[in-house]
Design brief:
The complex is a heterodimer of chains A (326) and B (314).
Chain A lengths: L1 H12 L1 H10 L7 H4 L9 H28 L1 E4 L3 E4 L3 H7 L2 H33 L6 H9 L6 H12 L5 H9 L12 H26 L4 H8 L4 H12 L1 H16 L3 H6 L13 H10 L4 H30 L1
Antiparallel strand pairs in A: 1-2
Helix pairs in contact in A: 4-16, 6-10, 6-13, 7-10, 8-10, 13-16, 15-16
Chain B lengths: L14 H9 L16 H24 L4 H6 L11 H47 L5 H12 L3 H14 L6 H8 L3 H14 L2 H9 L4 H12 L1 H16 L3 H6 L8 H11 L9 H21 L1 H13 L2
Classes of the chains: A mainly alpha (326), B mainly alpha (314).
Amino acid sequence: MDGLHDEERKDKEQSSSMTTLSETSGQPAAPAVVTDRPPAKRSWIGWGFMGPFMAVFALVFLAPIAYSIYLSLFRDQMVGGTAFVGLENYERAFSDSQFWSALGRVSLFLAVQVPIMLFIALLVALAIDSGRLYGKSFFRITIFLPYAVPAVVATLMWGFMYGTRFGLVGNINDAFGVSLPNPLSPELILASIGNIVTWEFVGYNMLIFYAALRVIPHDLYEAAEIDGASQLRVITAIKIPAIRGALVIATIFSIIGSFQLFNEPSILQNLAPNAITSYFTPNLYAFSLSFSGQQHNYAATVAILMGVITMVIAYVVQLRGMRKAR
Amino acid sequence: MSAPAPNRTPATSGRRQVTLSSARRRPQRLHTVDRPRRSPLLTGLTGLVLIYSLVPLLWLFINATKTQEGLVGSFGLWFDSDVAIWDNIVDTLTYDDGIFTRWLVNTLLYVILGAGGATFLAVLGGYALATFDFPGKRAVFAIVIGAVAVPGTALAVPTFLMFSEIGLTNTPWAVIIPSLISPFGLYLMWVFSAEAIPTDLLEAARVDGSGEFSTFFRVSLPLLAPGIVTVLLFTMVATWNNYFLPLIMLKDPDWYPLTLGLNAWNSQAATAGGEAIFNLVITGSLLTIVPLITAFLLLQRYWRSGLAAGSVKQ
């Protein structure tokens, strides 16, 4: 901490020299002396900046993970309090049909919803980037807006619209004398949740893709035009390969998001109590184990397993995505 | 074929603008292929996604003008004869002794301390990763990147148990402290700092004898402004929209943020003897999203450039 105060004192003494420095900083020419120095000395000073983040990070990330692992090795018993059980909780999870059903459900969700969402996001990003739209900034901003809507509000909104009582589905049924399938029924609830999540994140992913498309050097397009390449060819041969990094990042974030699915089903439970079980997703399962069932140790086990599965899949996607880039 | 837009070089008055434009080596858009003919068909097709994005928001706005009876009795995407938006707003703010305003104040508290703190830590950390070589840097990087993949809920249950042992649950700190870490914000600031701060500039400051912290506050911080706004907006969204963390940490409705409060109002109808107040849930939802949408629209110039820089390095 003393070092910090020293810095601040120096700070004041040098404020005058700093102003002159900043005025000239726009010019690229640096004093010749600088060039023979190493760019940045390896020193502890970086920790002065990194330290605060890492301290809180240790408290809210590393400590809970360690505590989770610790919890997963014990069990609360009717008699005799907590007992060390080794990997028994993990064995239990592997033969727990509710856990597997939850994992299967989010895997299905991942396999269907993520590709649809990313595909729409990519199409919109390409359309906006093509410069062929009327009012493209309006498109970009408006499609992004749902990202700023809390999951709670998005789910309530869609949940009401799905409703057959005063929702749009009910309106359509009344107006046309049809009976649409109820989106909140057990058969359709997963698709209905997929729609809410797609609505929330299409714009966000579109923006990531669009930002990556913007920085492609435009002489590539000119060269392609001279070669007589079609628009489709430009997209598949230049644009998509150039934004592969952004595609991989968006895919990884979407995988993590799918495995963590919680808010939407948890809130829809009020509107569709029969369709959403307490083990609808792994997170919902861990939550109900912990807070309704008081089975903290087993809940921690489920959470750890989900963390490991998520990390493995995210890592595989990253490896595959990056290897193809070469 | 319209003439290319004049090259909008920033005015050379401020040093910040000068360095920013020189630090960013963006290709200028002066090419002929950049201005293709507009396509009504493509606009129409993309318009479908636009409608998809807008319809629920429109539905929310229209239905916030209806009474509880009007919600059931009228078509969802058009106004009822009885426009009751003002009554709804007043009712929302005064229902149950004005608990909604209490939730609003709580949310603001969590956003200011949580998102503000998260941005501050991410800016410092990202700057450190971009400009210093320090012992353990690689380890820091690996740990933080690995941590992004850990599901939030994997952390939530043990964090709850830890916090309940030190008596933090059911206090605002239980929501604020975990909000202070944004691995995505750290990543964004790291990439942005590497982009926006020329090493020459830092070297020049060092040669001048400027301490690292004074260099940071006087030289680097202004250069990082667009990145900071971006991270601030995204951490604001994260804390404003936070649901899971407060759900497990808070029992007392007096500490609820808006998201938890709205859900409590919604589930009230399902409980025996509970009063159905869907018009207030809908109006409250509208009031909840207005501030964030306004912030995004007003600050779009900043976060767009911040996000663009973030995507370069992926």
